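dumping the sequnces here before i forget
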Amino acid sequence: MAVIGSLKLSCYKSTALLERRAVRPLGPGERLGLWMHLRICESCRAYERQSQVIDRLLEQRSSPASLDSGTLEALILARIG
Amino acid sequence: MPTPPEPPPSSPTDRRKEFSEWVRVHTGDLLRYTLARVKGTEVAEDIVQLTFVSAWETLDRFAGDSSARTWLFAILKHKLADHYRKSYREAKAVSGNALENDAPDSELFAPDGHWTIEHRPAVDPEAFREEEPNERLDRALRHCLEALPTNLRTAVEMKYLLDHDSDAIQQALGISATNYWQHLHRAKLKLRQCIEGRVANKT
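..and the predicted 3d for all of it:
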């Protein structure tokens, strides 16, 4: 069936849709196509999980706690003179 | 109604003393936040300096209805957005519109758009197990963000800075929606691959 055929997605397209879905809802055709693809593609399911882990890390990240900001503080204080 | 916090003291000497205290208390946190989000220590330090200078110059507008920390972070985020806009423009001037095509990344995908055998994501790689705190994963992310091309890194940073407001980000960077989603997609593909490789090599 041509309709089903047109819903067949590549891994490239599926991973692109996964990224967009993380921000805003997909259209009905896109949702169905993605659902069908994820059912048969283990690698894209793995990508989906890993992408979500990366999103969580990006949201929370900070730099190491040990940091000497003394020099910078002195510079700033000098500038506001 | 909660009692509003004290407004900044009004005599110039008092104001300066109070502000110096803010510098001492908040510089470390502002710098840590910035270091995680831009490339290079010098760039981060410049942005934090600009933030304080700007705060000092507009101290009259600090109404005291938020904490100094909240106010400073709001200014910092403006400075970061300026920085990203500028570095995006510069990166674009250098590399032209090389990225504005929709072909699958040939390193990762076969011409038909399916993963190549070498590059398809492993099903449950050690790299992405979230035992907390996962210092190795954090380190890998930091390294892999630094390794991203500027335009991709900028799109990712703006996404978090502007709270996922895609329209605002596209406008700020002057790129089309298609281009923006493509940037995020490519950035994620690269980050994922880089993190997996890096953690597997125990570096």
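Chain A has a mean pLDDT of 89.
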